[in-house]
Design brief:
The chain is an alpha+beta fold. It contains 5 helices and 19 strands. The protein is globular and about 50 Å long.
Length: about 300
C-alpha cells in the first residue's frame, strides 16, 4: 500500500524589495504546482532579507499581523492552485510582542494553523532574541474548524496530512521532532535561514553544513518520518559591518523515514524541488524499527531539567 504526496520545496535569494521576494516565491510555487505538487514549503522569513544580523528597533516595522498581507497573498495562491502552502513571516501579535511564525494555508485559501518558533538563537549574526518571543503554543486547525490546543509542539491538520511544522533553530533539537511525532505528525517540515560565516575556514563551513543536514536526517530516522527542509541562498551583508554577513548555503532537501535523500537542491541556485513522498511507508519503517514502542518513558523524567547537576 502507498499514499503518495507530491511536495515542492522552494529556495531563492532575498532582497530588500518585498515585492521582488514575493515574486520569486510565487514563481517557485507556480513551477511546483505545474508539476503536480499538492504541498509547498517555503524558506524562513522569505519576504525580506534575514534582518536578524543586527539589532534595530526600526526593523520591527517589517512585522505583520495574521491574518495580514502575506497570508492574503499566499492564501490566494493556495486557493488558485489548490495546494497547501507553508509560508513564514515576522508576526506582530500585539504592540511590542513579535514572533517568528510559520503559517499553513489550506488549499481553499484559509489558514489551517500556525506555529510560532520555540527555540530562539542569540549568536553573532543571528540576534533573534531581540526580535522574537518564543512560541507559547502551536495553534492547530482542523478541516473546517479551529481548536485551542495545549501549549507545545502541535501538528497542523490539513487536507494533505498532519504537518509537524517547526522553524530553523528548532531543527537542532530532537525533543521538538519527537514531540511532533508523538502528537501524530505524518511528516516534519523546517522553513530555514542558515548559512556560513564567510570569515570561517572553508573546512569549518563545510562541517557546519553537513552537521545541519545530518541532524535533520537523524530526526527522520529516530521518528520514522519524512522530513522536508527549505533554506535560502545567496550572500546577505550586515549593513552595520559588525559581522562579515552571511552566505546562506541553500541545500534544501527531503529525506525519507530512514534518513535517505529523496531530493536535494543546489547550494546557490533558486530552485523548486519536486519530491514524491509515500506517507504509508512510515508504517513499515516503524514496524522494522519500533523506536516508539521501545522508549523507556519511565526513565526520562530528567529531560525536563536544564542539566543533571
Amino acid at each position: 500500500m502507498s499514499r503518495i504526496l507530491r511536495a515542492g520545496i522552494v529556495q531563492h535569494a532575498c532582497t530588500e524589495d518585498r515585492t521582488e521576494n514575493l515574486a520569486r516565491s510565487e514563481a517557485g510555487i507556480r513551477l511546483a504546482a505545474g508539476k503536480g505538487a499538492k504541498l509547498l514549503l517555503l524558506q524562513e522569513l522569505h519576504t525580506s532579507v534575514y534582518f536578524c544580523q543586527y539589532e534595530s528597533t526600526r526593523l520591527f516595522d517589517l512585522a505583520e499581523t495574521i491574518p495580514g498581507p502575506s497570508t492574503e497573498f499566499f492564501g490566494a495562491l493556495a486557493k488558485e492552485l489548490e495546494l497547501v502552502i507553508v509560508c513564514s513571516l515576522f508576526e506582530k501579535r500585539a504592540p511590542g510582542l513579535y514572533h517568528n511564525t510559520a503559517v499553513v494555508l489550506e488549499r481553499d485559501g484559509s489558514i489551517a494553523g500556525k506555529y510560532r518558533k520555540m527555540h530562539i538563537p542569540d549568536d553573532p549574526g543571528y540576534y533573534e532574541k531581540f526580535y522574537f518571543t518564543p512560541g507559547d503554543a502551536g495553534v492547530a486547525g482542523t478541516l473546517g474548524a479551529s481548536t485551542a490546543p495545549p501549549a507545545g509542539f502541535v501538528p497542523i491538520v490539513t487536507s494533505v496530512g498532519k504537518l509537524g511544522v517547526l522553524v530553523c533553530w528548532d531543527q537542532w533539537y530532537p525533543e521538538a521532532a519527537r514531540l511532533m511525532a508523538l502528537a501524530g505528525a505524518e511528516l516534519l517540515l523546517y522553513p530555514t535561514a542558515i548559512g556560513a560565516n564567510p570569515a570561517d575556514a572553508t573546512d569549518e563551513q563545510e562541517r557546519q553544513r553537513e552537521a545541519w543536514i545530518t541532524v535533520q536526517r537523524a530526526h527522520a530516522v529516530a521518528n520514522g518520518l519524512p522530513v522536508l527542509v527549505a533554506n535560502r541562498i545567496g550572500f546577505e551583508p550586515d549593513p552595520t559591518s559588525q559581522t562579515p554577513g552571511a552566505e546562506f548555503w541553500g541545500s534544501s532537501f527531503a529525506a525519507g523515514p530512514q534518513g535517505e535523500f529523496l531530493a536535494q537542491a543546489s547550494r546557490d541556485k533558486g530552485e523548486a524541488s519536486i519530491v514524491d513522498i509515500d506517507l504509508e511507508r512510515s508504517e513499515n519503517v516503524r514496524r522494522w524499527w519500533p523506536f516508539l514502542r521501545d522508549r523507556r518513558i519511565d526513565a526520562y523524567g530528567d529531560l525536563v531539567r536544564r542539566f543533571r547537576d
